[in-house]
Design goal:
2 copies of one chain form a homodimer. The first copy, chain A, has helices at about 15-25, 75-90, 110-115, 130-145, 165-180, 215-230, 265-275, 290-295, 325-340, and strands at about 5-10, 30-40, 45-50, 50-55, 55-60, 70, 90-95, 125, 150-155, 235-240, 250-255, 280, 300-310, 315-320. The model of chain A has no long low-confidence stretch (mean pLDDT about 95). With about 350 residues, chain A is α/β, with parallel strands linked by helices. In chain A, the strands form 3 sheets. In chain A, strands 5-2-1-6-7-8 form a 6-stranded parallel β-sheet, sandwiched between helices. Chain A has a 6-stranded mixed β-sheet with strand order 10-9-11-14-13-12. The first copy, chain A, folds into 2 domains: about 5-130 and about 330-340, Rossmann fold (3-Layer(aba) Sandwich); about 130-325, Dihydrodipicolinate Reductase, domain 2 (2-Layer Sandwich), CATH 3.30.360. The two termini of chain A are about 15 Å apart. Chains A, B: It catalyses: L-aspartate 4-semialdehyde + phosphate + NADP(+) = 4-phospho-L-aspartate + NADPH + H(+). Chains A, B: It comes from Alkalicoccus halolimnae. Chains A, B: InterPro entries: Asp-semialdehyde_DH_CS, Asp_semialdehyde_DH, Asp_semialdehyde_DH_beta, NAD(P)-bd_dom_sf, Semialdehyde_DH_NAD-bd, Semialdhyde_DH_dimer_dom.
Chain lengths: ~350, ~350
């Protein structure tokens, strides 16, 4: 007999929260009760889940009484304030913010890559950054067989990663430009940063604020999280993160150098074709390759444009695309919850 | 006393042709007479140059009688048919198509990189591919001092590189999507290829058709042309070329490994700040970095986001942006013409 769990979703009214609810429903997570939580501002909203209308409540420490599993996606400061309160009350928290990702006591999980690390959790489990998840999940099956020495990624990221106001800004700005009107950027590249730039019909090489070494936080997340998830501090990882006028679907141009000899593009394709959660879309003769526009609403990670480097025989190029709100956020969080159940870690 | 030249522009009615005329005017190229040539279809159109109305004529072999300098930008097949006819009649041809770029008897020129190679011309000089020009021009000053072993580029290319029908498709499609209408892609990624995909609010990893090795022609152009211009067959070069919904302005995420020790990000910035034709835009504290939207109509190549790799001390990342119709095409062609004059090669 399957046990059912008391589940809370914090940030239920946001873009990722909405996808979390869809995913819990769609994948039929064993729910005994569902509590929807948000900031005070969004409290009172009604959301229908499996035919039942639920009212969103303001999240407080005592909201987590009796909760087994809490999925957090309401921003880093909310996670910092409430995660330990939830854990104190017996919940396991799966946190989709960057608040705890690099804490050494917090496992950072992509189930198909490092599910085993869940066993060392202390109540909080972190869901990696969207752009990291799709990349490590696509590379893990290759790395397992051939090792991985070096990784260089340039991203083509969708605005939905910056929230619904960024989506609105992109569409409003697009219309203004088409109509020959002036634009007045207010949100992107980073809502809290000093300057804002045109995103419509543009490519902006800044996601999140800058760190002291000239890399952005988004780039450092990709670098540090990849090493943590792959449990290899010596791997060479570099990232350049770029925001595009795409609503949903992150694309990534990835170069890797594997450790062992003997890999070629066909072998790499076969490895990915057999990997769960990955759809190989790679047939140049049919112009078949992953597109952001095709990825929206899909659970899988799409990989194509696989080419052996012309100079470095252990070097390979590929194009990795996924729905940043699903595998990049909500789906991965729910998959972590399923892994917790499977491993008997959710009591 | 400066000599003036009889100049012909073939493809005068196209997007690049228009920029060629603007550039000849703006940089005050010493013109004795100007002849505008095109396909039969566009012949008869009127174009005003320096206050004088000129009629576009259909290009024929005899059109080049008495011409000293012919700038070609009317497609590869037109160049193949007419370049030798122009040369036979005493003209020097600067060809902006891919027709002759890899011919070993044809110099492939970016003046600030390999102007000296003009001396070996046999009548035809090739202008490189737009995405190649801005990259090699930005890297040349670094390479001169520190050598260059390895180069990996991921591009973010504008639709104007695919002609005016691609620009129209991008804007029309954008409006259709904003209005909730169906779209019907007919042009991009490659007008002559079998399948066409959404370009608005998307990122398409195909520019030009595919070659047998899985790289596209655009990618192979960047690889082969870079080696030819830099006169180094042993350099490791790789490219992934992606089309974006940007009208004009190619952006490139470039990773290089230099040969000699001792380069750091500050030194790299100083080298680029001092290089002619390059504008350094690199101040993370002010969110200053190159943007495609700022590059339109500008002659310079813009470089920013310069970072030393965190693992490879000779490795550097940067973001290179330029107007693909100017430095990427028309401006470089006119600069080649000025170099020919300077070197006494244009009689």
């Amino acid at each position: 007999m399957t046990k059912n769990y008391n589940v809370a979703v914090l940030g239920a009214t946001g873009a990722v929260g909405e996808q979390m609810l869809n995913t819990l429903d769609r994948l039929d997570f064993p729910i005994a009760s569902l509590k929807l939580l948000s900031s005070k501002r969004s409290a009172g909203k009604k959301i229908t889940f499996k035919g039942e209308e639920l009212t969103v409540e303001e999240a407080k420490p005592e909201s987590f009484e009796g909760i087994d599993l809490a999925l957090f996606s309401a921003g880093g400061s909310v996670s910092k304030a409430l995660a330990s309160e939830a854990v104190k009350r017996g919940a396991i928290v799966v946190d989709n913010t960057s608040a705890f990702r690099m804490d050494k006591d917090v496992p950072l999980i992509v189930p198909e890559v490092n599910e085993h690390a869940l066993k060392e959790h202390n109540g909080i489990i972190a869901n990696p950054n969207c752009s990291t998840i799709q990349m490590v999940a696509a590379l893990a099956p290759v790395r397992e067989r051939f090792g991985l020495n070096k990784l260089i990624v340039s991203t083509y990221q969708a605005v939905s990663g910056a929230g619904s106001e960024a989506i609105d800004e992109m569409y409003d700005q697009s219309r203004q430009i088409l109509d020959g009107q002036e634009i007045d950027p207010q949100v992107l590249p980073v809502s809290g940063d000093k300057k804002h730039y045109q995103i419509a019909f543009n490519a902006v090489p800044q996601i999140d604020v800058f760190t002291d070494n000239g890399f952005t936080f988004e780039e450092m997340k990709m670098i540090n999280e990849t090493k943590k998830i792959m449990e290899d501090e010596n791997m060479s990882v570099a990232a350049t993160c770029v925001r595009l006028p795409v609503e949903t679907g992150h694309s990534e141009s990835v170069y890797i150098e594997v450790e062992k000899e003997g890999l070629d593009a066909d072998k790499l394709r076969r490895i990915l074709a057999d990997a769960p959660g990955i759809t190989l879309q790679d047939d140049p003769s049919q112009q078949l390759y992953p597109l952001a526009s095709d990825s929206k609403g899909k659970d899988d990670i799409f990989v194509g444009r696989i080419r052996q480097d012309l100079d470095e025989k252990n070097g390979f190029h590929m194009w990795i695309v996924a729905d940043n709100l699903l595998k990049g956020a909500a789906l991965n969080s729910v998959q972590i919850a399923f892994s917790l159940v499977k491993l008997g870690l959710l009591k």
